[in-house]
Design a protein that fits this description.
PH-domain like
Length: 584
C-alpha cells in the first residue's frame, strides 16, 4: 500500500486533460457518484492574460510569453499535486472503511446493541414499578410532606459511640483489605465433575502413546539397569567403591544425607545438560543407553507390522501389570494362606521391634541390612539359582503367588478330575500321582487315545501348553500332489515328539499323520508363507534329515506360543542328549 501511495505522490507531469476522480482505483460508490471533470478552464487563462496586459492600451503585453508559460506550468503542477492528494485521501478512506468493517465483525456490535436494549427495558420497568409504589404510599407518607425532625443536640455519649463505630468500621475495612483475599479462598464450593472426552481408537495415536511411554520410562529403566549392574558387580572397582562408601555412611548414620546429596548432584547435572552441556554420565561405566535406529520412511506393510508390534507390546505390558496387581490382591486376601501367614507374622515382628527398639538403632540396622542385601546377598542368589529357590523368601513368596487366571484353571481342574476318576477308571490312584501321570488315555484326540493315534508309547502325552493342540496346515513341499501338498490338522508337542494329526475323514487318515522326533530336528525357525502379506507370518519351518525341503506348519493363530513351546522342549532334549552322550 505504501509503495502505491508513493507512486501516486511522486509522479511526473501530466497532460492538461485530467481523468475523472471516479476512475481512480479502490473508491467507493459514494465517492464515484459525483463526476468531477478536471479540465483546463479557458476563462481562467483569459483572465490571467488580461491581468498581465498593460492598462494603458489593449493588445500590448508587458510580460514576455515565457513568463506566461511558466505561470501556466506552475498552475498545472499545482493541479496535479491536488489531484494526487485527493486520490491519496480516497485510498486512505477506503482502507479505513475496510478496517472499520473488520472491527465491527470482530466486536459483534449487534449482540452488544441487543444487550443494551435489554438493559434499557429492564431500567424502564424498574422506574415504572418505583413510580407505582410511590403513588400507593400516598401524600402523607411521601418524604416531601413529612415534617423535618430537628436532630437532638450531640452529647458526650453519642460522640463516643460514633468514634467507636468509626474505629470498628475502620478496623473491619483494614482486616478485609488485608486478609479478605485469603479468607475467600476457604469458602466451600461444590466440586465440578468434568468428564474428559475420550479419543477415538486410532493406530497412529496408539503408536504415539507407546513411544511417549517409552521415552518417559527411559530414565527409570536406565537407573534400574545401572543398579542391576552395580549389584551384579559388573565393574568390580565401581561396586567395591560404592559398597565401602555406603557402609561407611550407614555406620555413621549418614545414609539419608548421602542419598539427598546424590539427588542434588543428579539435578545439577540435569541442569547443565539442559543448558547445552554434553555430559554422558552413568553409575557403572560399562552401562550406556541403547541407541535408537534412525527413523526411515516405512512402507504400508511395515506400518501395519509396526501397529501389530505396538499392540503386542501394549498387550504384554498390560498383562504384566495385571499379574502384579492380582498377586498383591491375592496376597492380602488370604487366597494362598501359607504365604499370607508369613507376611502376617513378619508384620507383627516389625510392630514389636518398632515399639521396643529405638528408632536410631532401628535405622542403623535397616541400613546395614539393606547394604549387605543389595551388594552381597542378591549377588549370591543371582549367581546361584538353586540357592535362591531354597532360601530367598521374598522371591519364593512372589513366584508362588497365583494370578486370577491360574486360580480359575486350578478350580476347573479340580472340577474335572473327580469326574474322570469316578468314570471309566473307578480305581483310586496312589497318593502323589495325578491322573495324567497314571495313564495317557486321558488325552484323547478326535480319532481316539493320543498314543494309539500316533502309535507311541503310553507315557507320551501332550504338554500342558498344548493339551488341545494348535490348529494349522502342514505344507510338505516335497510332495507334488495337491492332496498331499497341503493338509489341515492339529499340531501337538510331547516330551520327545512333534505330532501332527490330519483332519481328513478317510479311513486311512492315520497314514497322513506326521510324527517327528525332536532330536531329529536340524533347524526350526519362524516362517512367513506369503511375503506379500504384512506381518512376520503365521508359520513354523522345521527341517529334518528325511525331508529335502523343510516342513512348514502354516496358518497358526498362536504361532509365537507354539514356537516357544517347541523350541524350549527341543533345546531341553538336545541338552539332555548332549549330557548323556557328549559324542553326539
Amino acid at each position: 500500500m505504501l509503495k502505491r501511495l508513493d507512486k501516486i505522490r511522486f509522479r511526473g507531469q501530466r497532460t492538461d486533460v485530467f481523468l475523472d476522480l471516479g476512475d481512480s482505483p479502490n473508491t467507493s460508490d459514494t465517492e464515484c457518484s459525483e463526476e468531477i471533470l478536471m479540465k483546463p478552464r479557458p476563462s481562467l487563462e483569459m483572465k490571467d492574460t488580461e491581468e498581465l496586459q498593460d492598462p494603458a492600451g489593449p493588445g500590448t503585453l508587458t510580460m514576455p510569453a515565457a513568463a506566461i508559460q511558466d505561470y501556466q506550468r506552475a498552475e498545472t503542477d499545482r493541479l496535479n499535486d491536488l489531484k494526487g492528494h485527493l486520490e491519496i485521501a480516497l485510498l486512505e478512506k477506503h482502507f479505513l472503511q475496510e478496517e472499520l468493517r473488520k472491527l465491527r465483525e470482530e466486536t459483534n456490535i449487534d449482540t452488544l446493541k441487543q444487550e443494551l436494549e435489554k438493559e434499557r427495558s429492564k431500567r424502564l420497568d424498574l422506574e415504572q414499578k418505583l413510580n407505582l409504589e410511590v403513588l400507593k404510599m400516598g401524600p402523607e407518607d411521601s418524604p416531601s410532606q413529612r415534617p423535618r425532625e430537628t436532630p437532638p443536640p450531640p452529647t458526650a455519649n453519642s460522640t463516643a459511640d460514633k468514634q467507636k463505630e468509626t474505629m470498628y468500621s475502620w478496623l473491619q475495612a483494614w482486616l478485609y483489605n488485608r486478609f479478605g483475599a485469603y479468607i475467600g479462598d476457604f469458602r466451600f464450593q461444590p466440586e465440578e465433575n468434568t468428564v474428559e472426552p475420550e479419543e477415538p481408537l486410532s493406530a497412529k495415536r496408539l503408536t504415539e502413546n507407546m513411544r511417549r511411554l517409552k521415552r518417559g520410562a527411559k530414565p527409570v529403566i536406565n537407573f534400574k539397569r545401572n543398579l542391576f549392574a552395580l549389584s551384579s558387580w559388573q565393574s568390580v572397582y565401581t561396586s567395591a567403591f560404592a559398597f565401602i562408601i555406603y557402609m561407611n555412611a550407614a555406620w555413621h548414620g549418614w545414609a539419608i544425607p548421602m542419598f539427598i546429596f546424590l539427588a542434588i548432584l543428579r539435578l545439577s547435572l540435569n541442569y547443565l545438560i539442559s543448558r547445552g552441556w554434553r555430559i554422558q554420565w552413568s553409575i557403572v561405566p560399562g552401562v550406556s543407553e541403547p541407541v535408537e535406529p534412525p527413523k526411515e520412511d516405512l512402507t504400508v506393510s511395515e506400518k501395519f507390522q509396526l501397529v501389530l508390534d505396538v499392540a503386542q507390546k501394549a498387550q504384554n505390558l498390560f498383562g504384566k501389570m495385571a499379574d502384579v496387581l492380582e498377586k498383591i490382591k491375592n496376597l492380602f486376601m488370604w487366597v494362598h494362606p501359607e504365604l499370607t501367614q508369613k507376611l502376617y507374622v513378619g508384620l507383627w515382628v516389625a510392630l514389636i521391634c518398632s515399639c521396643l527398639i529405638p528408632y536410631k538403632l532401628m535405622g542403623f540396622m535397616i541400613g546395614l541390612y539393606a547394604g549387605i542385601k543389595f551388594f552381597i546377598i542378591d549377588f549370591m542368589f543371582r549367581s546361584c539359582p538353586k540357592l535362591r529357590d531354597k532360601y530367598d523368601t521374598p522371591h519364593i513368596i512372589w513366584t508362588s503367588l497365583p494370578t486370577d487366571p491360574q486360580l480359575k484353571g486350578a478350580t476347573l481342574s479340580r472340577r474335572i478330575h473327580p469326574t474322570v476318576a469316578h468314570g471309566s477308571l473307578g480305581t483310586a490312584l496312589p497318593c502323589g500321582i495325578s491322573l495324567e501321570e497314571q495313564t495317557g488315555r486321558a488325552y484323547n484326540t478326535k480319532k481316539g487315545a493320543f498314543h494309539e493315534v500316533f502309535n507311541l508309547s503310553g507315557d507320551e502325552r501332550p504338554l500342558a501348553v498344548c493339551e488341545n493342540g494348535w490348529r494349522c496346515c502342514l505344507i510338505n513341499r516335497d510332495r507334488k500332489s495337491p492332496t498331499d501338498y497341503i493338509r489341515n490338522g492339529v499340531l501337538f508337542v510331547t516330551e520327545n515328539y512333534l505330532c501332527f494329526e490330519s483332519s481328513s475323514c478317510r479311513s486311512n487318515s492315520s497314514k497322513k499323520n506326521k510324527v517327528i522326533k525332536l532330536i531329529d530336528i536340524t533347524d526350526i525357525q519362524k516362517y512367513k508363507v506369503l511375503s506379500v502379506l504384512p506381518g512376520s507370518g503365521m508359520g513354523i519351518s522345521i527341517a529334518t534329515p528325511s525331508t529335502q525341503k523343510p516342513l512348514v506348519f502354516g496358518a497358526m493363530i498362536h504361532r509365537d506360543e507354539a514356537f516357544d513351546a517347541i523350541f524350549t522342549q527341543y533345546m531341553k532334549k538336545v541338552t539332555m542328549t548332549t549330557a548323556t552322550n557328549p559324542e553326539t
